[in-house]
Specification:
Elements: H1 15-32, H2 39-59, H3 77-84, H4 87-90, H5 103-121, H6 135-151, H7 161-201
Helix pairs in contact: 1-2, 1-7, 2-3, 2-5, 2-6, 5-6, 6-7
Length: 203
């Protein structure tokens, strides 16, 4: 008996879908960090991928080759962000807007990229202790930038209604959860400091 031919299956991906996938992974692991602190690594990697992806989507215009180097490589993370902040480059349509970063957001992006993500992606043999209490604030700042790049530049980011709602929901839910975690970490730090001071005073 002849078998029916197997139906072809395709993975279809675009810059936007790739960025959304990273954002979904970050949101998932944010929920899991209470059970396993190692999941903060995947939060960092997910946020970096989403930020980079949406930055490329926002600054590429209508020519995908515009975000490639002469050797055909994708422009760097920092080059993409620089273009997104350039009013001349981003003024593609009448209502297009460029990215304006606060000093706090700049510092958070720098920490995300240079201090955490690069170390995780290119880990060198060592013992590395990370104060996880600082990560929620960094993540919140990065999510704010991702929201702007994905939803507010009015350039060439192509999201359908469902994708637009998904990005909004993922960012809103993740931000709320991160704020709660941040408060818990702050309370824990204050309590440990108080406990340490109490011990010192009694000796």
């Amino acid at each position: 008996m002849n078998e029916l031919p197997t139906k072809e299956q395709w993975l279809r991906i675009s810059e936007e879908k790739n960025a959304i996938d990273y954002l979904e992974k970050a949101a998932f692991f944010i929920k899991e960090t209470s059970a396993n602190y190692n999941h903060w690594k995947w939060v960092i990697i997910g946020l970096h991928g989403a930020l980079y992806g949406f930055a490329i989507a926002a600054c590429r215009g209508y020519d995908s080759k515009s975000v490639l180097t002469e050797k055909g490589r994708l422009i760097s993370f920092w080059q993409a962000l620089k273009r997104c902040q350039d009013p001349k480059h981003m003024k593609m349509l009448i209502f297009s807007t460029h990215l304006v970063l606060s000093k706090k957001q700049k510092n958070s992006i720098k920490s995300l990229k240079s201090h955490f993500r690069n170390e995780f992606e290119h880990f060198k043999p060592k013992g590395w202790s990370i104060d996880i209490s600082v990560i929620p604030e960094i993540a919140i700042d990065v999510l704010e930038v991702i929201r702007f790049l994905a939803l507010q530049t009015n350039t060439s980011v192509h999201l359908d209604d469902n994708e637009h709602k998904l990005v909004e929901q993922l960012i809103a839910d993740s931000t709320d959860l991160l704020k709660k975690k941040s408060e818990l970490y702050k309370e824990d730090i204050q309590w440990r400091k108080f406990y340490k001071d109490e011990i010192s005073d009694n000796h």
